[in-house]
Backbone:
């Protein structure tokens, strides 16, 4: 399963109607809802803001809306394209400004589906997808002498979002792939002769 790491957009015009497709990273249904609300406010002059989203590690939460287009002609084709890409934690919106010519149900399905494919292709081309790796949060507290040693040790692991707080001791926290969490815990314990223990969440 892959996740989106940044925004991308694509635009096309079909028989005078303008379609602006955008993908936005989201981590939950609530975030998708809030982001969609912001999109609708941003494009208050648009005729429709159609959307589909997928979230969850196993892509278990999905949603979509035709936003006033005939049922099944907009949200469903967008969601189908998303599902076919094996992606999660993503919101895809297609904003339409009506150009005066009715497209018919087949024309709408094609226009929304094409818009969804085009923006996903743009995100692929920009390198905005990465394999989802489940991460754990780690934290430990060490004195300054141990901290120097442990800082070098951390460099041997793939860690991210590391923060350090300097006080009487150094409090360190960050994220690590869940598969490596116990290895980090053992390495820190060994390196400090059991004086520093890592908490894994």
Residues:
């Amino acid at each position: 399963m892959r996740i989106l790491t940044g925004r991308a957009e694509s635009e096309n015009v079909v028989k005078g109607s303008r379609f602006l497709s955008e993908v936005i990273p989201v981590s939950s249904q609530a975030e998708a809802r809030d982001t969609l609300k912001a999109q609708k406010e941003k494009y208050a002059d648009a005729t429709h803001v159609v959307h589909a989203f997928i979230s969850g590690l196993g892509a278990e939460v999905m949603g979509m809306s035709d936003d006033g287009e005939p049922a099944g002609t907009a949200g469903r084709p967008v969601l189908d394209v998303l599902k076919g890409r094996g992606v999660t934690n993503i919101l895809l919106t297609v904003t339409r400004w009506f150009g005066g010519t009715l497209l018919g149900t087949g024309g709408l399905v094609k226009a929304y589906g094409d818009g969804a494919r085009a923006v996903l292709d743009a995100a692929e081309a920009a390198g905005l997808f990465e394999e989802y790796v489940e991460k754990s949060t780690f934290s430990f507290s060490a004195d300054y002498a141990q901290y120097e040693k442990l800082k070098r040790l951390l460099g041997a692991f793939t860690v991210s979002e590391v923060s350090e707080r300097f006080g009487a001791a150094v409090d360190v926290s960050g994220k690590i792939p869940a598969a490596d969490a116990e290895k980090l815990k053992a390495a820190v314990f060994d390196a400090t002769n059991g004086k520093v223990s890592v908490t894994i969440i």
